[in-house]
Every structure is written in structure tokens, then in C-alpha cells.
């Protein structure tokens, strides 16, 4: 039977790592002090951030594998299932773990969804420099200090504020990573453009429907969140806007074909309802498809 464990509370995770529970909703764990373990899958009911110190097995999330090394941050949100493919390993590094209930009534709770890296795949992890690692450890130390401090009416606010500060630093570090991996990412954008062009040259629009961000992310072996962030960083547009711009370009060309009605073109491009095509076309072009076709006849 597969070795697996659920972590629905901070105390469960602390007990698993032989770590004292200082606060019921948050913990910072030095994983080097934990015993060697054999584990294949973990169900996470908590927010997890792991800063790995040494290689300790292949992490699997979905179909992806990532051998995470020193200076790597991996993020997981509640509800994810994570696997470790290793018979026996001794953990190292540090983990920040907090329960969603910690955020209730705080400003962070209102925008925790904006930290897209909690939904990235493991091969899209954050690789940090030594200086960035020092900042991470400083943030962890501040959170740990509040956890070790006697609980008072400031505790929760300060813990959450320091978690938010840490996450904001991670946003900055990811922005830096997007820049330092610009050559790799440009290759991904070129592949995205080719996939998008081929999509409209195929019979997929009629068979599958309108192209989605999730479809291209999957084709490129990326998570939807990471793919969306990458496209925005490289092009200044959201992935959805990029797809719609291509769709309109293709539609403009098809409208020159007077053997087809606007409705036929709409269905051919993947729209279920022609009026939706006309509405989107007018939003982007400023004219309805029929008006645009009529204007071309005057030229």
C-alpha cells in the first residue's frame, strides 16, 4: 500500500517533523532536525513553502518531476497532493507552513490568490541567489520570533504581516527569475505563437471550441498560472488577450471570404453563438463583422 499522509493542521505537520507546536496556525520548521522518512504522497490542507537545503528525492506534482537542490523555494496551496519518489531520505532545509484560518479577517486573505506561485508546478520553482536566501531566512526568523513570543493581541497581525512581507519578496524574486530566464521564455512564446497559429489552421476550433489559456499551458507543459505570468511579463498582455488578438486577426482574414456567412465563420472559429463572435469582434475592431466586410468592399 502506498505510504501517504494528510496534513490538515499545523500540529500534525510539526509532530511529523518532531517539532514543537508554538502556534496552532503557523510554524517554521528546521527540517534538518527531522528523522529520515519514507513517504510517497502528501495531501496538503495547509499553505506550504519549502526552502530546500540539499537534494532529498524527486518531488512529483501531477505528472511533473523536479529534483530540487540548494537555493530552491517550492510553494503549495491547500488542496494539493504532492509526492516524493524516494525510498528513504533525510530532509534538509526549512519549511514555512500556515493554516488558511490564520488569514481570516486580514488584508492578506483578500489577495492571497494573487500570489500565483502557489499554483505553479514543481519544475517552475523559484531558484534564489545566496543573497536572496539570506532575505528568506531573515523573514523566517522574524516569523519564528513571533511564534516563540508569548501570545498577545499583536501576535497574529505581526505573524501575518511578516508572511506577507516574505511573499512580496518572493514576487520580486520571481520577477527577477523571469528576466534572467528571458531567452528560455522567448522560446516558449515563439512555441505558443506557433501553436496558436496552427490551432486556427486545423479543425480544432470546430471540434474543441475556442482556444483557452489552459489548453496552451498544457501543450507547453506549464501550469496555467505560470504560463499566464510568463506571457504577461514577455508581451505586456495577458495570455487571454494575446489569444483574442490572434483570433481577431484570423477573423479579419476570414471575413474576406464572401462564400461564407458571418455565422459560418463564427462556428468555424469555435464560437457556439454567432452573436458572441460579433460582440467580441466589435469590441476589438470598433465595427461589427458585417460592417467590416462592407467597408472592405468599398476599397
TrEMBL record:
InterPro entries documented for this protein: Homeodomain-like_sf, HTH_AraC, Tscrpt_reg_AraC-type_HTH
Residues in HTH araC/xylS-type domain copies: 190-295
Keywords from the named record: DNA-binding, Transcription, Transcription regulation
A GO molecular function held by the record: sequence-specific DNA binding
Annotated PROSITE patterns: HTH_ARAC_FAMILY_2
Domain of life assignment: Bacteria
Name of one Pfam family that matches: HTH_18
Protein name as catalogued: AraC family transcriptional regulator
Origin species: Dyadobacter luticola
Phylogenetic classification of the source organism: Bacteria, Pseudomonadati, Bacteroidota, Cytophagia, Cytophagales
Amino acid at each position: 500500500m502506498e505510504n501517504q499522509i494528510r496534513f490538515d493542521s499545523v500540529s500534525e505537520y510539526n509532530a511529523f517533523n518532531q517539532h514543537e507546536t508554538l502556534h496552532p496556525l503557523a510554524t517554521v520548521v528546521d527540517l534538518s532536525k527531522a528523522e529520515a522518512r519514507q513517504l510517497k504522497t502528501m495531501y496538503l490542507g495547509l499553505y506550504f513553502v519549502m526552502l530546500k537545503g540539499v537534494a532529498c528525492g524527486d518531488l512529483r506534482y501531477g505528472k511533473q518531476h523536479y529534483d530540487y537542490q540548494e537555493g530552491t523555494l517550492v510553494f503549495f496551496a491547500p488542496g494539493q497532493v504532492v509526492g516524493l519518489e524516494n525510498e528513504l531520505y533525510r530532509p534538509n532545509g526549512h519549511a514555512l507552513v500556515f493554516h488558511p484560518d490564520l488569514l481570516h479577517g486580514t488584508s492578506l486573505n483578500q489577495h492571497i490568490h494573487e500570489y500565483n506561485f502557489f499554483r505553479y508546478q514543481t519544475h517552475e520553482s523559484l531558484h534564489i541567489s545566496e543573497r536572496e536566501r539570506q532575505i528568506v531566512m531573515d523573514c523566517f526568523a522574524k516569523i519564528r520570533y513571533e511564534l516563540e513570543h508569548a501570545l498577545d493581541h499583536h501576535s497574529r497581525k505581526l505573524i501575518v504581516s511578516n508572511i506577507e512581507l516574505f511573499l512580496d519578496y518572493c514576487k520580486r524574486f520571481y520577477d527577477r527569475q523571469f528576466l534572467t530566464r528571458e531567452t528560455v521564455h522567448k522560446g516558449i512564446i515563439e512555441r505558443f505563437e506557433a501553436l496558436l497559429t496552427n490551432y486556427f489552421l486545423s479543425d480544432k476550433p470546430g471540434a474543441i471550441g475556442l482556444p483557452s489559456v489552459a489548453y496552451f499551458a498544457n501543450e507547453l507543459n506549464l501550469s496555467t498560472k505560470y504560463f499566464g505570468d510568463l506571457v504577461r511579463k514577455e508581451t505586456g498582455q495577458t495570455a487571454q488577450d494575446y489569444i483574442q488578438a490572434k483570433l481577431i486577426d484570423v477573423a479579419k482574414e476570414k471575413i474576406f471570404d464572401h462564400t461564407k456567412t458571418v455565422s459560418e465563420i463564427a462556428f468555424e472559429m469555435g464560437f457556439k453563438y454567432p452573436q458572441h463572435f460579433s460582440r467580441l469582434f466589435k469590441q476589438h475592431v470598433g465595427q461589427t463583422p458585417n460592417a467590416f466586410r462592407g467597408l472592405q468592399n468599398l476599397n
